């Protein structure tokens, strides 16, 4: 599966990293997830010699995440002023604190085997690729730490099960655990796709920087592109950014045009204005 990544400066030193929404890819991914417990059990219990040990675990996690997503949709459709509607509002407030880089990394699923990085033509392709690698490398460290932290809090939240209302802390920590796990997977996948040397995803940032510098000095970077990662400078994106300035960043009109042209989620993109 191919993923289109849109990268551009949004305000000052803050850059936006977002994946273009592909409805067909989302539908294909959802079709691989069991929709009922019966279907889940039939796929887990079905013997297969080539089935890896972690396959059933990932299938179970995806099924649970899909069920949680369906429940969230039910809360979204609840009548205004109802208890379910208030829970949905609380959830939106909590989700507003999730960093945009996490949302971006979660969008890089295990099915992705090629990325196309679209960026303004005024930027240096090497710099863009380094920034993408940096956010991926940083994600492997941050989300691994938060994954362990969130998972360790799950047993503590079970004490709220005795209360007569929904155990919101438990489901929130469960969601955060799943979210960090997906972001960690996306980080590792993106780092693998954007690095020429397959073993570099396990190395440190200095090694990655050294490898990039050596490649540029030898002149190989401009004459060769890894087929798993294609850099695409865009004059169109450059024109859409012509209203940007150092203090206020990209204007609202330009933001709307970029999000519409490249099928981006404006709410997620706008978070990068205030990210650090």
Query: Strand share of the residues?
Result: 5-15%
Distance between the termini: 31 Å
Secondary-structure element order, N to C? EEHHHHHEHHHEHHH
Shape: globular
Write down the domain tally.
2
Main beta sheet, described? 4 strands, mixed
User: Structural class of the secondary structure composition?
Assistant: alpha/beta
| Total of helices | 11
pLDDT under 50 segments (min length 5)? 197-226
Mean pLDDT rating: 77
For the largest beta sheet, what order do the strands appear in spatially?
Answer: 2-1-3-4
What is the share of helical residues? 55-70%
Give a topology summary.
Elements: E1 2-11, E2 14-19, H1 23-31, H2 37-45, H3 55-76, H4 83-95, H5 100-106, E3 114-120, H6 125-157, H7 168-193, H8 205-217, E4 229-234, H9 235-240, H10 252-262, H11 266-270
Parallel strand pairs: 1-3, 3-4
Antiparallel strand pairs: 1-2
Helix pairs in contact: 5-7, 6-7, 6-8
